[in-house]
Amino acid sequence: MINVLFVCLGNICRSPMAEALFRDMLVKENLTNQITVDSAATSSWHIGDPPHKGTLTILKKYSVSTEGLVGRQMKQDDFENFDYIVGMDTSNVKNIYQLTGKTNHPKILRLLDLTEHKKDVPDPYYTGDFQETYDLVSQGCRALLEKIREEHHLQK
């Protein structure tokens, strides 16, 4: 089983959006028996909370299930349990390095580095633009799935 963890600051906007979108892709492409997905925060602010209403609204707009999404904080053993740990921005990646003690480890990456954008996913908690975040996270998730397919020789 290939395990993917999406990480952002609070685990209420970007990373649960990525988890839901990626899970939706896995279901549609019949890959749920080969890849699992989860999300977490680098902070402890929203442990046990549901996603932000803006995240829930945009996912509902695109008929993406939000079932089971609950905020949690990243733990040190997540490094051992996940094959891909994907931060939404540079700050998240630095926090992941700090938490895991694994600076520049290849399993830790920034989502949009896999796309032409090569930038941070803006935090809609501050920008209010959940559509922009959705569009960028969607592109990043598609690119990540392609990367996983190539690295693990998964068929389309």
Structure overview:
With 156 residues, the protein is α/β, with parallel strands linked by helices. The protein has one domain (2-151): Response regulator (Rossmann fold, 3-Layer(aba) Sandwich). 42% of the residues lie in helices and 13% in strands. The chain is built from six helices and four strands. The chain has helices at residues 14-28, 53-61, 78-81, 90-100, 124-127, 130-152; strands at residues 2-8, 35-41, 84-87, 108-110. It has a four-stranded parallel sheet with strand order 2-1-3-4. Strand 3 (84-87), helix 4 and strand 4 form a beta-alpha-beta unit. Helix 1 (14-28) packs across helix 6. The two termini are 17 Å apart. The mean pLDDT is 96. Pfam families: LMWPc (PF01451). It comes from Heyndrickxia shackletonii. It catalyses: O-phospho-L-tyrosyl-[protein] + H2O = L-tyrosyl-[protein] + phosphate. This is protein-tyrosine-phosphatase. Residues 2-147 form the Phosphotyrosine protein phosphatase I domain.
Write the layout of secondary structure elements.
Elements: E1 2-8, H1 14-28, E2 35-41, H2 53-61, H3 78-81, E3 84-87, H4 90-100, E4 108-110, H5 124-127, H6 130-152
Parallel strand pairs: 1-2, 1-3, 3-4
User: Into which percent range does the helicity of residues fall?
Assistant: 40-55%
Measure the end-to-end span: 17 Å
Number of helices: 6
CATH topology annotation: Rossmann fold
Which range does the strand content fall in?
Answer: 5-15%
Mean pLDDT: 96
What composes the largest sheet? 4 strands, parallel
Q: Strand sequence of the main sheet, in spatial order?
A: 2-1-3-4
Shape: globular
Low-confidence segments: none
**How many discrete domains?**
1
CATH class: Alpha Beta
CATH superfamily: Response regulator
Radius of gyration: 14 Å
- Shape-level CATH architecture: 3-Layer(aba) Sandwich
Would you list the SSEs in sequence order as H and E?
Answer: EHEHHEHEHH
| Beta strand count | 4
Structural class: alpha/beta
